[in-house]
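To whoever picks this up:

The parser on our side crashed when reading a file containing two proteins. I've narrowed it down to the boundary between the first structure block and the second sequence. Both blocks are reproduced below exactly, byte for byte. First block:
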Amino acid sequence: MQQLRLLSKGPDETFKIGQRLGSLLKDGDVVALFGELGSGKTTLVKGIASAFLIPERDITSASFTIIAEHKGSIPFYHIDLYRLEGQDLNLIGIEEFIGRGICVIEWAERLGEIPENYIKVRFNIIDAEKRQIIIEGINEGRQIFTNTIKYLKVTLSSNLGNFFALTVISFLLKFPPMRGVQILMVNFLTDLPLALIGFDRVDPDETKKPKNYNVYELGLFFIVFGIISAVFDFIFLSIFKNNDRQLIQTLWFIFSSLTEIIIIFSLRTKRFFVKTQPPPRIILGTVGVVMFLTFLLPLTSIGGSIFDFVSPGIQQLLIISVLSLMYFFTNELIKIFYYSRNY
């Protein structure tokens, strides 16, 4: 069974490991914790519970209550078997809680044989602060790897295309396509949802076997999808080239932000975008906020005074929206063909 070995240098890191583990759990999962007294099991439980909107203060050692039920975003059961052994386990009816919400069991060694579908977390004490935490039965490492590759593919392919297009177009226009402060704002807004890509869901077939970095494959991917990005930048210029500087820069800001945001929904999966798991709500919500700010900022006084934006017309915004959707679906078609030929 694949193991994920982590080193915690103190309670804060143990809590964060619990948070990350909690973000990967789904309704019905059971987490079995093994370790000596004082190894940090309850701290990890607090981190796991926080992923389900349960305050840290609500999680305490359940040694005296044995089973503590918490109402978070889904039911959460904290079971501590420290004081129970043998026949006593049959009296508390643990099986009644298995499969209902999230169930975390401390001192799981009291259970004897652990079912294969349980997620097992083992604590090894290294010194007064450090703990080795070994996680078995969950594909966290493969999910982290997959989401890291997603981040690289989204950012580098779109940035490569934009860099090439902006460089060429700078020679065609009498002014830069975007001012430095405008480019910084694009990067800031589009990095917000990408910063959360680590929480994204992963297609089951992505975790079936170990992965490694393939520099050739990544390079080919960046080139193919970077070219698509650059082509649509040139299409944008051909449509709006006869407008004045401020309007072109404003529209380019909106178009660049939109395309870099929506491309996340295409390149996050090898499948057709509607045939995969939807992103978590935190990503969807952040994308919604960023898209709202993208359209709002050019309409505000701050957008005009700081970023030199002007208010675009409805027709121009509609053209940009349609062009962005065309860019998205072009990526989808090329993506399906690309993966069918290379995998």
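<<boundary where parser fails>>
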Amino acid sequence: LLPLPYTWEAVERTVERVRKVQDYLEIPVAVENVSSYAAFTGSQMTEWEFLNEVVERADCGILLDVNNIYVSAMNHEFNPMDYVNAVPAHRVAQIHIAGHSKYEKYILDTHDHPVIDPVWKLYARAIERCGPTPTLLEWDDHIPSFDEVHAEAKKAERYLLANHSALATLDRILEQYRVVQHGVSMYFGSVTAPDPEHLRRLKQLVRRTRTPWLSDHLCWGSVDGTYTHDLLPLPYTWEAVHRTVERVRMVQDYLEIPVAVENVSSYAAFTASEMTEWEFLNEVVERADCGILLDVNNIYVSAMNHEFDPFEYVNAVPAHRVAQIHIAGHSRYEKYILDTHDHPVIDPVWGLYSRATERCGPTPTLLEWDDHIPSFDEVHAEALKANRYLHRATPELVEAAS
């Protein structure tokens, strides 16, 4: 199985062959990515770009071999997650997993060892993107006992069942509660647009949960399909305003529900910024006609790190656009404070929350506590402190609710 040169000529020739086979056999075809040990200097695109062009133009499926991706990635020094993240998930008909052999200067797809952890991680990501997918463990040489091979194949079930059981748990929650979705990977401010496949799957989830609106962070965190899984602050420029507004509008139009953007905590600032963070937030939400998830702890953290008055921020926010408020604790270090969600809310943050509820009225509020979590009673008591501020905002509404 020899690798192709990833050229446009090869795309056109391969598409022609795949179409011809599908037409003659009168059944769908799925093409499998191979492992490779040499590359053509004349290639004009990456392997995954080549695969995507072929399957979209030929309108065929993919047999995604994640071990082959790993082998090729190690031999050619690219990030295998970039490959898995770029594949059009709706075209994946089957997934292959396997073991391989490592030599001094390369690794070889030999199908004679157990699957290694990095390949399981690629498989887990593929299942996240594609959903439960028929999977084959390939073991063709030095075959151990049936029980050993079967035990290795059964490992795949934890990823398949994890995906299924998470949805089953969600469905049980939905029977009793209203769920409002909150995300951490939309990256409205990134130069590259949101991943269409991510949006497609997100829309499926939105329909499942019937969330009245969806929130995510006003930040960036991805470049050319590579995701940092971090919430990075934006330069507060007019160029960033226009780009972010375009992204928010696009997501709202596609998902067909309102979006609220959350202010992030920050630890560095861009010298190119042309306005304050709250001016930037206001420009985005007014132009995109979206809501705000106001995180008052993030405001406090950023204010201490960048030496501005946090009340100026809270007082400048358009109150009618605030859909939800977040409160949390943080950690203080010698030269900065960090949004860690692992302490009780401090008095200055409660002060900001008090002012926010004065301006916005009683607003759905979430206490974030993600690490060093104490007993439920302690966390619940901390969350209930918000009631005194909500009561001050509109006593009669709180009394009616209680």
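After patching the parser it read the second block fine. The first strand starts at residue 30 and ends at 32. Residues 396-402 have pLDDT under 50 and may be disordered.
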